[in-house]
Protein backbone atom coordinates (compact mmCIF):
# COMPACT_ATOMS: atom_id res chain seq x y z
CA UNK A 1 0.00 0.00 0.00
CA UNK A 2 1.43 3.40 -1.04
CA UNK A 3 0.80 6.28 1.32
CA UNK A 4 -0.49 9.54 -0.16
CA UNK A 5 1.97 12.35 0.58
CA UNK A 6 -0.71 15.04 0.45
CA UNK A 7 -2.76 13.18 3.05
CA UNK A 8 0.34 12.70 5.22
CA UNK A 9 1.06 16.42 5.00
CA UNK A 10 -2.48 17.18 6.15
CA UNK A 11 -2.23 14.53 8.88
CA UNK A 12 1.00 16.15 10.15
CA UNK A 13 -0.66 19.58 10.27
CA UNK A 14 -3.69 18.20 12.16
CA UNK A 15 -1.51 16.37 14.68
CA UNK A 16 0.50 19.59 15.25
CA UNK A 17 -2.58 21.83 15.55
CA UNK A 18 -4.86 19.49 17.50
CA UNK A 19 -7.91 20.39 15.46
CA UNK A 20 -9.21 20.30 11.90
CA UNK A 21 -10.05 24.01 12.01
CA UNK A 22 -6.59 25.22 13.03
CA UNK A 23 -4.90 22.84 10.60
CA UNK A 24 -7.15 24.14 7.83
CA UNK A 25 -6.07 27.72 8.61
CA UNK A 26 -2.42 26.67 8.32
CA UNK A 27 -3.00 24.75 5.08
CA UNK A 28 -5.48 27.24 3.60
CA UNK A 29 -8.12 24.50 3.40
CA UNK A 30 -11.63 24.30 4.78
CA UNK A 31 -12.30 22.35 7.96
CA UNK A 32 -14.47 19.90 6.03
CA UNK A 33 -11.77 19.28 3.40
CA UNK A 34 -9.21 18.54 6.12
CA UNK A 35 -11.64 16.20 7.88
CA UNK A 36 -12.38 14.32 4.63
CA UNK A 37 -8.67 13.81 3.94
CA UNK A 38 -8.05 12.42 7.43
CA UNK A 39 -11.04 10.08 7.14
CA UNK A 40 -9.74 8.88 3.78
CA UNK A 41 -6.29 8.26 5.27
CA UNK A 42 -7.85 6.31 8.16
CA UNK A 43 -9.88 4.25 5.69
CA UNK A 44 -6.81 3.43 3.61
CA UNK A 45 -4.81 2.43 6.71
CA UNK A 46 -7.82 0.72 8.32
CA UNK A 47 -7.00 2.20 11.72
CA UNK A 48 -8.32 5.26 13.61
CA UNK A 49 -5.70 8.01 13.88
CA UNK A 50 -7.46 10.43 16.24
CA UNK A 51 -9.83 10.37 19.18
CA UNK A 52 -12.41 13.06 18.42
CA UNK A 53 -13.96 15.01 21.28
CA UNK A 54 -15.43 18.47 21.92
CA UNK A 55 -12.10 20.03 22.98
CA UNK A 56 -10.15 18.86 19.94
CA UNK A 57 -8.27 15.83 18.64
CA UNK A 58 -5.93 13.44 20.44
CA UNK A 59 -3.84 10.94 18.42
CA UNK A 60 -4.61 7.29 18.99
CA UNK A 61 -1.71 4.91 19.65
CA UNK A 62 -1.50 4.24 15.92
CA UNK A 63 -1.82 7.95 15.20
CA UNK A 64 1.02 8.78 17.58
CA UNK A 65 3.26 6.19 15.90
CA UNK A 66 2.49 7.60 12.46
CA UNK A 67 3.01 11.18 13.70
CA UNK A 68 6.51 10.41 15.03
CA UNK A 69 7.46 8.82 11.71
CA UNK A 70 5.99 11.60 9.57
CA UNK A 71 7.59 14.31 11.72
CA UNK A 72 10.99 12.67 11.30
CA UNK A 73 10.52 12.37 7.52
CA UNK A 74 9.43 16.00 7.19
CA UNK A 75 12.41 17.08 9.30
CA UNK A 76 14.79 15.23 6.95
CA UNK A 77 13.06 16.73 3.91
CA UNK A 78 13.47 20.22 5.38
CA UNK A 79 17.17 19.54 5.93
CA UNK A 80 17.54 18.35 2.34
CA UNK A 81 15.74 21.47 1.09
CA UNK A 82 18.09 23.64 3.16
CA UNK A 83 21.20 21.95 1.80
CA UNK A 84 19.98 22.25 -1.78
CA UNK A 85 19.32 25.96 -1.22
CA UNK A 86 22.82 26.37 0.21
CA UNK A 87 24.33 25.00 -2.99
CA UNK A 88 23.58 28.30 -4.71
CA UNK A 89 26.26 30.99 -4.76
CA UNK A 90 24.29 33.54 -2.72
CA UNK A 91 22.79 32.69 0.69
CA UNK A 92 19.16 31.79 0.09
CA UNK A 93 16.27 29.83 1.51
CA UNK A 94 14.40 29.95 4.83
CA UNK A 95 16.07 31.13 8.03
CA UNK A 96 13.95 30.88 11.17
CA UNK A 97 15.27 32.79 14.20
CA UNK A 98 13.98 32.57 17.75
CA UNK A 99 14.79 34.80 20.69
CA UNK A 100 13.14 36.26 23.78
CA UNK A 101 10.21 38.64 23.44
CA UNK A 102 12.19 41.42 25.13
CA UNK A 103 15.34 41.17 23.02
CA UNK A 104 13.51 40.50 19.79
CA UNK A 105 10.92 43.26 20.07
CA UNK A 106 13.19 46.01 21.41
CA UNK A 107 16.57 45.35 19.74
CA UNK A 108 16.65 42.66 17.04
CA UNK A 109 13.68 43.35 14.77
CA UNK A 110 14.47 47.02 14.22
CA UNK A 111 17.92 46.02 12.89
CA UNK A 112 16.74 43.37 10.43
CA UNK A 113 15.95 45.78 7.60
CA UNK A 114 19.64 46.01 6.71
CA UNK A 115 20.02 42.21 6.71
CA UNK A 116 17.00 41.80 4.42
CA UNK A 117 18.44 44.38 2.02
CA UNK A 118 21.85 42.70 2.04
CA UNK A 119 20.49 39.16 1.55
CA UNK A 120 17.12 39.41 -0.24
CA UNK A 121 17.13 35.70 -1.14
CA UNK A 122 17.05 34.65 2.52
CA UNK A 123 13.45 34.05 3.61
CA UNK A 124 13.64 35.45 7.14
CA UNK A 125 11.18 34.73 9.96
CA UNK A 126 11.41 35.53 13.66
CA UNK A 127 9.69 33.71 16.53
CA UNK A 128 9.58 35.75 19.73
CA UNK A 129 9.02 33.52 22.74
CA UNK A 130 10.49 33.09 26.20
CA UNK A 131 10.16 29.31 25.78
CA UNK A 132 13.20 27.35 24.59
CA UNK A 133 12.30 25.97 21.17
CA UNK A 134 13.75 22.65 20.02
CA UNK A 135 16.39 23.51 17.42
CA UNK A 136 17.19 19.84 16.89
CA UNK A 137 13.64 19.32 15.59
CA UNK A 138 13.86 22.50 13.48
CA UNK A 139 11.29 24.46 15.43
CA UNK A 140 13.82 27.19 14.58
CA UNK A 141 17.20 27.26 12.82
CA UNK A 142 19.06 29.57 15.19
CA UNK A 143 18.42 31.07 18.61
CA UNK A 144 19.64 34.08 20.55
CA UNK A 145 19.38 33.06 24.20
CA UNK A 146 20.10 34.77 27.49
CA UNK A 147 21.48 31.58 29.06
CA UNK A 148 23.50 28.56 27.85
CA UNK A 149 21.32 26.07 25.92
CA UNK A 150 20.17 22.93 27.71
CA UNK A 151 19.83 20.86 24.53
CA UNK A 152 22.77 18.67 23.48
CA UNK A 153 24.42 18.81 20.04
CA UNK A 154 24.07 22.58 19.72
CA UNK A 155 26.85 24.98 18.82
CA UNK A 156 26.87 27.99 21.10
CA UNK A 157 28.84 31.16 20.57
CA UNK A 158 28.96 33.96 23.17
CA UNK A 159 27.29 36.95 21.52
CA UNK A 160 27.40 39.71 24.13
CA UNK A 161 27.24 40.49 27.80
CA UNK A 162 24.02 42.25 28.75
CA UNK A 163 24.11 44.81 31.54
CA UNK A 164 21.03 45.36 33.70
CA UNK A 165 20.62 48.68 35.49
CA UNK A 166 17.98 50.61 37.42
CA UNK A 167 15.46 52.65 35.44
CA UNK A 168 12.39 54.78 36.12
CA UNK A 169 10.21 57.19 34.16
CA UNK A 170 10.73 60.92 34.58
CA UNK A 171 7.06 61.24 35.58
CA UNK A 172 7.47 58.71 38.38
CA UNK A 173 10.56 60.47 39.74
CA UNK A 174 8.81 63.86 39.62
CA UNK A 175 5.95 62.38 41.68
CA UNK A 176 7.78 60.06 44.08
CA UNK A 177 11.26 61.53 44.18
CA UNK A 178 14.56 60.08 43.01
CA UNK A 179 16.21 57.47 45.25
CA UNK A 180 19.69 58.62 46.26
CA UNK A 181 21.02 55.28 47.49
CA UNK A 182 19.97 51.59 47.18
CA UNK A 183 18.43 51.66 50.67
CA UNK A 184 15.90 54.24 49.43
CA UNK A 185 14.33 51.54 47.22
CA UNK A 186 12.66 50.21 50.39
CA UNK A 187 10.13 53.02 49.99
CA UNK A 188 9.55 52.95 46.22
CA UNK A 189 7.32 51.08 43.81
CA UNK A 190 9.30 48.14 42.44
CA UNK A 191 8.28 46.17 39.36
CA UNK A 192 9.70 42.65 39.14
CA UNK A 193 9.50 39.49 37.07
CA UNK A 194 6.48 37.28 37.91
CA UNK A 195 7.30 34.63 40.47
CA UNK A 196 5.02 31.98 38.95
CA UNK A 197 6.76 32.09 35.56
CA UNK A 198 10.02 30.36 34.62
CA UNK A 199 12.73 32.98 35.08
CA UNK A 200 14.87 33.76 32.00
CA UNK A 201 17.88 34.07 34.33
CA UNK A 202 18.01 33.06 38.03
CA UNK A 203 19.07 36.54 39.19
CA UNK A 204 16.41 38.50 37.30
CA UNK A 205 14.86 39.97 40.48
CA UNK A 206 18.16 41.20 41.93
CA UNK A 207 16.68 44.64 42.60
CA UNK A 208 14.53 43.22 45.40
CA UNK A 209 17.66 42.64 47.49
CA UNK A 210 19.89 45.52 46.38
CA UNK A 211 20.60 47.58 49.50
CA UNK A 212 17.56 46.15 51.30
CA UNK A 213 17.53 46.54 55.08
CA UNK A 214 17.17 43.19 56.90
CA UNK A 215 14.31 44.51 59.00
CA UNK A 216 12.30 45.75 56.00
CA UNK A 217 10.65 43.39 53.52
CA UNK A 218 10.18 44.95 50.12
CA UNK A 219 6.86 44.40 48.41
CA UNK A 220 6.71 44.83 44.62
CA UNK A 221 3.87 46.91 43.29
CA UNK A 222 3.62 44.71 40.18
CA UNK A 223 4.83 41.34 38.90
CA UNK A 224 5.02 40.75 35.14
CA UNK A 225 6.21 37.53 33.51
CA UNK A 226 7.82 39.34 30.58
CA UNK A 227 10.68 41.87 30.49
CA UNK A 228 9.09 43.91 27.72
CA UNK A 229 5.95 44.19 29.84
CA UNK A 230 8.11 45.38 32.75
CA UNK A 231 9.66 48.05 30.52
CA UNK A 232 6.22 49.26 29.38
CA UNK A 233 5.04 49.45 33.00
CA UNK A 234 8.13 51.49 33.93
CA UNK A 235 7.60 53.78 30.94
CA UNK A 236 4.02 54.41 32.07
CA UNK A 237 5.33 55.85 35.34
CA UNK A 238 4.21 53.01 37.61
CA UNK A 239 7.53 52.30 39.29
CA UNK A 240 11.21 51.32 39.21
CA UNK A 241 12.77 48.18 37.72
CA UNK A 242 16.04 46.55 36.77
CA UNK A 243 16.01 46.55 32.95
CA UNK A 244 18.58 45.36 30.40
CA UNK A 245 20.23 48.34 28.71
CA UNK A 246 19.32 47.08 25.22
CA UNK A 247 15.63 47.67 25.96
CA UNK A 248 15.91 51.40 26.63
CA UNK A 249 15.86 53.57 23.48
CA UNK A 250 17.95 56.73 23.20
CA UNK A 251 14.96 59.07 23.15
CA UNK A 252 12.53 58.11 25.90
CA UNK A 253 11.10 59.27 29.21
CA UNK A 254 12.81 56.33 30.93
CA UNK A 255 16.07 57.34 32.64
CA UNK A 256 18.77 55.51 34.55
CA UNK A 257 18.98 56.12 38.30
CA UNK A 258 21.36 54.93 41.03
CA UNK A 259 24.34 54.81 38.61
CA UNK A 260 26.48 52.88 41.09
CA UNK A 261 23.99 50.00 41.08
CA UNK A 262 24.12 47.23 38.46
CA UNK A 263 22.65 43.76 38.30
CA UNK A 264 24.54 40.52 37.62
CA UNK A 265 25.69 40.44 33.97
CA UNK A 266 23.74 38.24 31.57
CA UNK A 267 25.62 36.32 28.89
CA UNK A 268 23.77 36.03 25.58
CA UNK A 269 24.55 33.20 23.16
CA UNK A 270 24.11 32.61 19.44
CA UNK A 271 22.99 28.97 19.13
CA UNK A 272 22.38 26.59 16.21
CA UNK A 273 22.41 22.83 15.51
CA UNK A 274 25.67 21.07 14.68
CA UNK A 275 24.19 19.87 11.38
CA UNK A 276 23.82 23.49 10.18
CA UNK A 277 27.37 24.59 10.98
CA UNK A 278 28.22 25.06 7.27
CA UNK A 279 25.01 26.87 6.37
CA UNK A 280 25.75 30.09 4.46
CA UNK A 281 22.58 31.68 5.78
CA UNK A 282 23.61 31.09 9.38
CA UNK A 283 27.18 32.28 8.77
CA UNK A 284 26.07 35.59 7.23
CA UNK A 285 23.43 36.13 9.90
CA UNK A 286 25.94 35.40 12.68
CA UNK A 287 28.44 37.87 11.19
CA UNK A 288 25.70 40.46 10.78
CA UNK A 289 24.70 40.06 14.43
CA UNK A 290 28.26 40.37 15.67
CA UNK A 291 28.68 43.61 13.70
CA UNK A 292 25.45 45.06 15.08
CA UNK A 293 26.42 44.10 18.62
CA UNK A 294 29.79 45.85 18.17
CA UNK A 295 27.99 48.96 16.88
CA UNK A 296 25.74 48.92 19.96
CA UNK A 297 28.73 49.02 22.35
CA UNK A 298 27.49 46.18 24.57
Q: What can you tell me about this protein's structure?
A:
This protein has 298 residues and is an alpha/beta fold. It folds into three domains: 5-83, Orthogonal Bundle (Arc Repressor Mutant, subunit A), CATH 1.10.10.10; 88-162 and 267-295, Periplasmic binding protein-like II (D-Maltodextrin-Binding Protein, domain 2, 3-Layer(aba) Sandwich), CATH 3.40.190.10; 164-264, D-Maltodextrin-Binding Protein, domain 2, CATH 3.40.190.10. Helices cover 37% and strands 21% of the residues. It contains nine helices and twelve strands. A five-stranded mixed sheet has the order 4-3-5-12-6. It has a three-stranded antiparallel sheet with strand order 10-7-11. A hairpin with a 2-residue loop joins β1 and β2. The mean pLDDT is 88.
| Total E-strand runs | 12
Question: Which percent band covers the strand fraction?
Answer: 15-25%
Could you give the order of strands across the largest sheet? 4-3-5-12-6
End-to-end distance, in Å? 59 Å
CATH fold node name of the largest domain: D-Maltodextrin-Binding Protein, domain 2
Total of domains: 3
Could you describe the largest sheet, including whether it forms a barrel? 5 strands, mixed
| Helix content class | 25-40%
Structure classification: alpha/beta
Mean pLDDT: 88
Amino acid sequence: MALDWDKLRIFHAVAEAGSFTHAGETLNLSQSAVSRQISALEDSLRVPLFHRHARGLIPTEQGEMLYRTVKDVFHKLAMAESRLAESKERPSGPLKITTTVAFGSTWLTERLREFVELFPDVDLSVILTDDELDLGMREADVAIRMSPPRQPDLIQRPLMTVSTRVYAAEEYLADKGTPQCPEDLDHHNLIIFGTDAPHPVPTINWLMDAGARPEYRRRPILRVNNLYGIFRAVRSGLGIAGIPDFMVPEKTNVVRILPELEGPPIQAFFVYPEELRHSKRIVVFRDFLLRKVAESNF
